[in-house]
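Page 37, top half.
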Amino acid sequence: MNLDAGEARRRFAAARVARLATVDAAGQPHLVPVTFALHDDVIVTAVDHKPKRSTALRRLANIAANPRVTLIADHYDEDWQTLWWARADGLARIIPAEAARAETIEDGATGDGSAGKKPAGESAAWHDAIDRLTAKYHQYQRHRPTGPVILIDVHHWSGWSYRPPP
């Protein structure tokens, strides 16, 4: 049975892992599992400390060449009556790690009489994404991601479930 957009979004948000599909400039697809957080209709994921084959990740190059992406989260069980999947289609953009340190705006007094500063622009978006990921995954509380952040503006939610939603 098809899931409506709200139910697909709800199931997606509750999932612990999703698969990010990107396509390079020549049309070659690439699929990779990602940790993520969802806020409104924006999915955030980041390049974290887990070992990678290279720091020149294909997902980043692919998004730079073609920002259209799809993510899918699913539930599998030997009891097929519990199967479901939820998909998010959207446009991705990359916020480089350097942006985290780049921009600040005045934020009034800090208590000691001096003016405080807080992140602005892409820096604020980078910090917000990392905070959301840290809130969802306890592993990030000890080792916060420091790499690029990917923000995906979801324009379409879809899904399927063997059973209708409760």
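Page 37, bottom half:
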Amino acid sequence: MDIYILTGTPGTGKTTIAKHLLKYGFQVIDLNSLVIKKRLWRAKERGCKVVNIPALQKEVKSEILRMGKQSDKAIVIEGHLACELKIPADMAIILRTRPDILIKRLKSRKYPNYKISENVEAELVDYCTIRTKENYNCKIYEIDSSRSLSSTLKEVVSIISNKKIPDKRWDKINWLKYFEHPKVSKYLYK
């Protein structure tokens, strides 16, 4: 049974892509749902749950074992916290979104400005990519999810099913030029 990591900052399309992967026959572990269901958080800071990462990692491993007994279908572990885990995986895919587009997506979700700022800064400095590289010893791909859902989904499915392995190494996407973009810079360092 293959295990795939699908991570990226909030607003990059992970959950939407994962829901579509279910239709392709993949099993999905939604980390946000698991955190809530199993109450894997300690406290709230600034209105956000502080997740107990070791407890989450333990639950994910248990979930993989449980799912593996029921089916030999591939498992996709989805969530922005996936980059913080150390789970044996066959491949990791990091969804990346242009910072100006990410701002629009997070605003549409009614994120407060400080959360938009934190997530845009994380995207600008490749946070999920760096953490994935540190925590996983597998093939790592970045996909620009700034485009349409259908093109992003097609690329994810193509990579996972090994039909097309593009040059999407983990160091290909660079948003540094957006530090000076007027729609982005006003959200930085809040």
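Margin note: The chain has a mean pLDDT of 89.
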